[in-house]
Design goal:
It is a single chain. The relative contact order is 0.20. Helices cover 63% and strands 0% of the residues. About 30% of the residues have low confidence. The protein has one domain. α1 packs across α4, α3 runs antiparallel to α4 and α3 packs antiparallel against α6. The longest helix has 23 residues. It is built from 6 helices and no strands. It has 165 residues and is mainly α.
């Protein structure tokens, strides 16, 4: 499957999962229709670049991390590994390769999604913030901008680590 087709399948799958699951709270239609404007901020001690987030923000579960299923945990570890392996983006090809790997992992995450309830809703807050960043890796052409985007993805993964286990 080519990169464009894989990206479309991944995006449609995530949007379907975000908007279509019957066990979600009512605010997920907003997530699906306006996902580009959302960003995840870890908590009240957010870094400056995260404190300007609009829309839903990641929250802890009464001061504790949210529990995720094994499939989600493995997918998150794989996403983190991919980002860490691409520590320095030197070209648009590096960014494209990272985006392709992230698309594949996100597709796998969506296809195997079994989470329900508030922890699932919080996972969606994270994913809605991550998707536009992955798209930026595919569309931006300035290497400095791509490095900033990659750093933004790392920041989101740090927020994930602070909110999920």
């Amino acid at each position: 499957m080519n990169r464009v087709s894989l990206s479309i399948v991944t995006l449609l799958g995530l949007l379907f999962c975000l908007a279509g699951c019957g066990h979600h709270s009512g605010d997920h239609d907003e997530h699906a229709s306006d996902h580009d404007s959302h960003a995840a901020a870890p908590d009240s001690h957010a870094a400056d670049d995260e404190s300007h987030a609009s829309g839903p923000q990641l929250e802890l579960n009464d001061g504790k991390k949210w529990q995720v299923d094994e499939h989600t945990r493995t997918s998150a570890e794989n996403i983190t590994r991919l980002v860490n392996e691409t520590e320095l983006i030197r070209s648009t090809a590096d960014a494209q390769a990272l985006a392709e790997g992230l698309d594949q992992e996100l597709e796998s995450l969506v296809q195997g999604c079994t989470m329900t309830g508030p922890s699932h809703d919080q996972l969606h807050v994270f994913l809605v913030a991550l998707l536009p960043k992955v798209n930026e890796l595919k569309t931006k052409t300035d290497v400095d901008d791509l490095r900033i985007t990659r750093a933004g993805i790392s920041t989101l993964l740090d927020a994930y680590e602070r909110h999920f286990e």
